[in-house]
Amino acid sequence: MKKVFLEGAISPEFIADSIAKHQGKHSIGAHNIFLGQVRADEVGDQKVVAIEYTSYEEMANEKLHEIREAAFEKFNLTCLHIYHSLGEVKVGEICIFVFVSSPRRKQVYEATEWLVNQVKEHVPIFGKEILDNADHQWKVNS
């Protein structure tokens, strides 16, 4: 099974390398990416400074594999990649990277939105928000 979890923030270099690998594929007419980053939400009078992501990795990998297979059946995709951070990711850093390619642009837009929603709704990844006073709370998906 393909590796989907990366320790810490997803770097700009990793994203650029992942995209560059697809430039030579001449059957692709469109790419779309979704980059989710940690935002500085306010919790009471505190601000989120980071999120620590954890997961039931085996279960999450199985679910991501199912989502991936369903996406290929549902959309006319050439390729797709889903990567998610584990461990601490600071505000402003990337925690999820979804990359979709297809012969046509309409498919990549629809597939990207569908994939992000599936990951958020069905994959057991949990975030503990770390606040600027060092307190923490479990994140509610939004």
Q: How does this structure look, described?
A:
The chain has 142 residues and is an alpha+beta fold. The chain has one domain (5-19, 26-138): Aldehyde Oxidoreductase, domain 3 (Alpha-Beta Complex). Helices cover 32% and strands 38% of the residues. The protein has helices at residues 12-20, 57-74, 105-122; strands at 5-7, 30-37, 42-43, 46-55, 79-90, 94-102, 125-131, 136-138. Strands 1, 2, 3, 4, 5, 6, 7 and 8 form an eight-stranded mixed beta sheet that branches. Strand 7 (125-131) and strand 8 (136-138) form a beta hairpin. The longest helix has 18 residues, at 57-74. It catalyses: 2 [molybdopterin-synthase sulfur-carrier protein]-C-terminal-Gly-aminoethanethioate + cyclic pyranopterin phosphate + H2O = molybdopterin + 2 [molybdopterin-synthase sulfur-carrier protein]-C-terminal Gly-Gly + 2 H(+). Keywords: Molybdenum cofactor biosynthesis.
